[in-house]
Amino acid sequence: MNKLAQTKTAIGISVSLALLCACDKKKSSISHEKPSVQEILVDPGAAGEENATEFFKEVKFIKLESSEDNLIGEITKIIFSADQIYILDRFTKTIFIFDIKGKLITKIRSVGEGPGEYAYLKDFNLDSVKNELVLYDMAHQKFLFYELDGTYKKEIRNGLFFSKFFPLGNGLWGLESPGRSNDPSNYFNILIYDQNKNQVVNRFLPIRYPALPPLDAPKNSSLTEGNVLFAYPFCDTLFSIAAEEACPKYVISCEQKFVNAQAADKYNMKSSEAYEKIRNDGKFFFYSYLTETKEWLHFSYAVNKRPFDVYYSKATKKTHHLKRATFDKALDMFSPISSYRDYFVSPMDAQILFSLKEKLAGDIGALAKSISAVDNPVLILCKMK
């Protein structure tokens, strides 16, 4: 079978599997309406190396204000509002709030066991309708609610374990990748939680292999205005999530490199050794760093421990594959972990920038010379052509 025929066969199998399992509706029922699914072809062999300033239409930087009492240990998550930047630092158990130019406004750090305090700050998000900042304490399975300026309001204990969450409006939240610590009735990749009722009201996308240790894939969902996109292990479909349904939106074909549910049957899916066996076979089983702008979709994957970035144009349906994007062939860019308007946003450690100050030119060279090794990270904003 030639390469074109193999590709068409792979697409056909992927699309068929996607349509068989979607749309997931209430109680994970199946819709009889076939949704419109776009195919994205991924080829690691087509990935190249690019100069970031040439690959992107525009690159700019936000230097986050630093002070002795407000140093970020790790940028775990970034959320932009119209005029503020919210950063989760899981290392120091802190939420930092900056203005859009990087000036520190305030921070939230309330570690403890009492009301209004948290022990394990797992995730956070914004409720743009209620103008609330919501934190999730996994240790006590509770939400903590704050004003956008960091003022504490209340907490709700929900008794649920999950890795990440996102807003769906009207007090509804999507809970991602719940763990096996939950009741077996909640062994689904997405739970819809109603904070007004304090209960799960919907369940989508059953966990395929509950015997395997759960994976906390980095950023396997993307939230943009009016849309939530979600990916989970051993599924080559990206789903659009709403309160009432989970519908396939994209199917990604990667020429037998991706291990979907059908291909996973050859592995022992009851042991964590399956993960390592798949990787040793030069294959992969999940997509990560899902990030969107209005016109572009980004996701990452890794084969033989080499990461790849894919940028997909929603308008032209074309993909750009990168195995490396650099500044002056000296500084490697990280995959974007957030977006702001038309820009993809990647963090860059100040120590790395500072160490390369003599090798970098242009705006980023000037920036590297203006900071110290102990400053807060810099945010790199990139707009596609």
Quaternary structure: single chain
General form: globular
CATH-assigned homologous superfamily: TolB, C-terminal domain
Range of strand content:
35-45%
Number of strands: 27
CATH topology assignment: Neuraminidase
Low-confidence stretches: 1-22, 27-32
CA radius of gyration = 21 Å
Per CATH, which architecture? 6 Propeller
Number of separate structural domains: 1
Structural class: mainly beta
CA distance, first residue to last residue: 37 Å
Question: How does this model look, in words?
Answer:
The protein has helices at 3-20, 52-55, 273-280, 350-355, 362-370; strands at 38-41, 48-51, 58-63, 77-80, 84-89, 94-99, 104-108, 121-127, 132-137, 142-147, 152-157, 164-169, 172-176, 188-194, 199-206, 221-224, 227-230, 237-241, 246-253, 288-292, 296-303, 306-313, 319-327, 331-332, 338-340, 343-348, 378-383. It is mainly β. It has one domain: Neuraminidase. Strands 2, 20, 21, 22, 23 and 24 form a six-stranded mixed β-sheet that branches. Strands 1-19-18-17-16 form a five-stranded mixed β-sheet, covered by helices on one side. The two termini are 37 Å apart. The relative contact order is 0.16. Residues 1-22 and 27-32 have low confidence and may be disordered.
